[in-house]
Specification:
The chain is mainly alpha-helical. It contains 4 helices and no strands. Helix content is 57%, strand content 0%. The chain is flat, with a radius of gyration of 30 Å.
Length: 188
């Protein structure tokens, strides 16, 4: 099954989920979902995701509901197509339909995790930079060296002992230490 056919079957899965939502809405409200007023959903309860004044908004109308349905189909088709293109040998109509069914929910869950992952990665990167910056003055003070006003980050002028320019390569630090002597690339 190629990725385009898988995307179409995934869109059929998304359409099935949309149909289920319409059926549930009709059974619950006894009218079409685009005619449901926001204040008729749960009037006695105050939900935390509704801002003040939103409970009296007009019904979205059929155009907005159709746009939401088309976007759901696009999400289902896109995710199913990507999975089918990545794993072409293991896609069959059943798996692509099931991926299409759960595509919107999967994307919603992933988007709630992305800010947390970015935040923790940013903290880890920032923590490494801050820790490295804090260690430099401590190392200089332990060695009895102090950075002068014209020296950046505690570096002494001229070639340093242990620096590659002095002929003493440093072991295990940075990309330059991992490269082979011919300069053809890093360590494997």
């Amino acid at each position: 099954m190629d990725w385009l056919m898988a995307a179409m079957v995934g869109a059929a899965g998304g359409a099935s989920m949309e149909a289920i939502d319409v059926i549930k809405s009709i059974k619950w409200h006894r009218q079409m979902p685009w005619n449901v007023q926001s204040d008729t959903i749960d009037p006695p309860q105050r939900r935390t995701d509704i801002r003040p004044g939103e409970e009296h908004l007009p019904a979205p109308g059929w155009k907005a509901y159709c746009v939401a349905g088309v976007l759901r189909l696009l999400v289902s088709a896109a995710l199913t197509g990507v999975v089918a293109a990545t794993y072409p040998q293991s896609t069959n109509p059943l798996t692509t339909f099931l991926i299409g069914l759960g595509a919107l929910s999967a994307v919603q869950q992933i988007t709630t995790l992305v800010p947390l992952m970015v935040k923790s990665a940013g903290r880890a990167a920032l923590g490494g930079v801050v820790g490295e910056a804090q260690q430099q003055p401590q190392v200089l003070q332990e060695n009895g060296l102090q950075s002068g006003p014209g020296q950046s980050h505690g570096a002494l002028p001229g070639p340093q002992t242990g620096s590659p320019s002095a002929g003493n390569p440093q072991s295990g630090t940075g990309v330059a230490a991992q490269q082979d002597p011919t300069g053809g690339g890093g360590a494997a």
